[in-house]
Amino acid sequence: MISVFIVYILMLIGIVVYSARRSKTNNDYILGGKKISGFSLALSERATGESAWLLLGLTGLAYSEGMAAIWVAIGCVSGILVLWIFLAVPLQKLAAKTKALTVPALFSKQFPGNNQSFGVLSSVIIIFFFIMYIAAQFSGSGKIFNDTFHIDPFWGMVIGSGLVTVYTVLGGFITVVATDVFQAILMVFTCVVLPIIALIIAASYNIDIAQTITEASYTVQLNAQTVNQATGGLMILNGLSWAFGYTGQPQLLVRMMAMRSIQETRQSRGVAILWTLLAYIGAFMIGIIGYKLVQAGALGEAAAIVTTDAEKIMPVMVVTLMHPILAGILLSGAVSAMMSTASSQLMVVSSSMTEDLYLQLAEKKMVEKRLLFLNKMLTLGVGVVGFVLAITMKDTVYGLVSYAWSGIGASFGPAVVLLLFWKKMSRAGVFASLITGTLSAVIWKTWLLEPTGTSERLASYLIAFAMAVLFSLMFPEKQDFEIKRLADQQLSA
Prior knowledge:
Elements: H1 2-20, H2 26-31, H3 38-49, H4 52-65, H5 70-98, H6 103-110, H7 115-149, H8 153-204, H9 209-215, H10 232-240, H11 242-245, H12 250-257, H13 262-296, H14 303-308, H15 313-321, H16 324-361, H17 368-392, H18 397-421, H19 427-452, H20 456-474, H21 479-492
Helix pairs in contact: 1-8, 1-16, 3-8, 3-12, 3-13, 3-16, 4-13, 4-16, 4-18, 5-10, 5-13, 6-7, 7-8, 7-16, 7-17, 7-18, 7-19, 8-13, 8-16, 8-17, 15-16, 16-17, 18-19, 18-20, 19-20
């Protein structure tokens, strides 16, 4: 198993060395310089969107909550479909027209005159939430290395965070996408192969998974008697609310922005959707089957590990049930889930700090080589901070991702959707979305989540969306500016 993982690391290094040579300019480093195919960007977006949360968080959720967790999976799949079917093409058009390299730059290009304000505010939001997101991925690597190679979680996080940070620093966006393609294939392989083998083993224990699925409760969690969670219709809404966050995740949206043409964007849609369906069905079934295997005693003494941390069900199943060679391949897929997302988030944070913060505040324009060097050093710094948080924060991977997802999605999501589809969207509406989304996510998570039973994902997004519409109507753009903006939109269409 260790030898297989070493081969995986060597292949990863080879991809990094080869692809890093193509990253020559700051544009290449941040958005690929239009050098990347739509097929690669689609797989990269999926690998990035489904982090350690998919193979650890969702599998653990399905294990602990049973079929009631399906609403989270449906919410995520719905969000991905909306992103690729409705947002991908308009985003590609707007990015091509404005030449924006980041999501915050889309706002600045559409509403010139507030570049500094948009840049500073967006950067603060991205840094605040994404550092936690990166920490969640590094924490996931510690769990995987601990359960597979019995490496202390601390050193597991050192290995995982070190690999991701180094290869991201070396080649930027081009390297990240190249490794994502490789990792996306491994991830979906794990999500397809593991549940199939687990089903065969379950049958040998006379476990009827079909009966389990049909007789299970879809509105009450398995552990509802021990935790304070919503049930019934509110639980369904909370699960489906994961869909909202996809409209505002910069690490996903930049993949659409990097597409070379509308045709390529549309062709890539099928790849992303197929990957999503295979990965989500597989990951969810891993948790469901894993629960029944633990009950049947099929995982032996290793089941004790899962009783204290449900998010370890996937690596425990792999180590216990699989041949070492196959186990090494499948666990490489789990490590890939962490790496692909963490690397993209490192890129989003460092590029936002340079493009949206530093360049907006700097009095003099920085030469290309120095700007590229600054981006690489910031990427390294963000990786170090994420590692420090990972070893100090005690929340679950699911909990950390949910919080960061809510804050980023509620801040940027309403602004992006309204900017693309509502002609009356104004700069005041963008500011309202960014500020309200951030504050409502933090306030709701801290004080209102338990009393109301409503997730911050649902509440903060709806509040931010309403405020963006309200402030756009209260403070519309000046008529001459609005006429020019609409003319530009028609021209780009």
